[in-house]
Amino acid sequence: MTNNSTEPDTARSAPARICLAGEDLDWLGGSSLQAAIDLRIRCALTLAPRPSGFEVRASGTLTGRASSADVWTPADEAWADLARLAVTFHHDRDDDRWPSRLDIVSAIPPGAGLASSAALCVATLAISADWAVPGEPIDAGLVVERELAGRDVGPMDYVPCTAGGVVRVFCHEGRIESVGQLEWPSDLAIVVVDTRRTRDTSEVIRWKRARSQAGDPAIAAYVRRTTEVVETLGALLADEAPDPVAIGEALDRAQSTLREDMGVSDDVTDGCIEALKRQGALGAKITGTGKGGCVFGVFPGSGAAVAVGALVAEGFAATLTEVSKAGVCPG
């Protein structure tokens, strides 16, 4: 770092993620399968000797504005507050230089099931910390989101945003017990469709928790059925030559229990999934807590770009992406 520059001193980026199977099993108990994808959020920090304030500037889909940088509006204040909490978490107020501005460019829409808040926390926390232990950014991110920002979030999103790739995350009582790495087939493309319906993730999770605490049998059915899918899909991805059709079928089964047992799908979401299947998806499902947000489908690589073109022509917000092996990284 230079001593007096007002240019961005450091920058870090972190990937979004999709949940292949196992939404909510981080707090219900069990394993989930997560994949980092190559939609990223980049945060650049500027330090100044004695700044009079701290400005957060953002552009891209995180703010709903995809053009030039713009100071966040009051409607974006929750995200600005989260960024401030994360970027100052490790910073000593006695330092000669203090954060004066954070510039964010994001390809991750907020509240869409792609772990935008985890990616934001991971990227900003990484600016001012050198992690000695892999679990440190996860622990720090959860303190920022849960304790400081008061958001009801689980820990599993932080693993792919930090480590990249495809991970199997086992949780017990809201804590990560183990993490395993898996491989994604190189010839299997991912297409994400945004339903364009945002929601408060914490609010949806609280609704689910209340049902679980009341002994809703549908929640127990969801845990049983989605655990079976996680086991099946995990075994497929551990195979040297995984069957793409079988992977698609497993994703369809995961969507079935999200719709029938967890009750987080609706006509709009179902319509997006049907469109993906109509264009050749081998399987498709919600990612994240549901009740809006994003869905994704998997395609043989050769047909994915054509499918995206057709979906966009139909008016869907479709994006072709792939698994990102890079987690949080410089630049």
TrEMBL record:
What Pfam families does this protein map onto?
GalKase_gal_bdg, GHMP_kinases_C, GHMP_kinases_N
Q: In which pathway does it act?
A: Isoprenoid biosynthesis; isopentenyl diphosphate biosynthesis via mevalonate pathway; isopentenyl diphosphate from (R)-mevalonate: step 1/3
Key words of the record: ATP-binding, Cytoplasm, Kinase, Lipid biosynthesis, Lipid metabolism, Magnesium, Nucleotide-binding, Transferase
GHMP kinase C-terminal domain segment(s): 242-308
SUPFAM superfamilies of this UniProt entry? Answer: GHMP Kinase, C-terminal domain, Ribosomal protein S5 domain 2-like
Question: Which residue range or ranges hold the GHMP kinase N-terminal domain?
Answer: 101-165
What are the Galactokinase N-terminal domain coordinates in residue numbering?
10-45
The answer, when asked if Disulfide bond is one of the entry's keywords, is no
Tell me the superkingdom of the source.
Bacteria
PANTHER family according to UniProt: MEVALONATE KINASE
Q: What is the official name of this protein in its record?
A: Galactokinase family protein
- Recite the lineage of the species: Bacteria, Bacillati, Actinomycetota, Actinomycetes, Pseudonocardiales
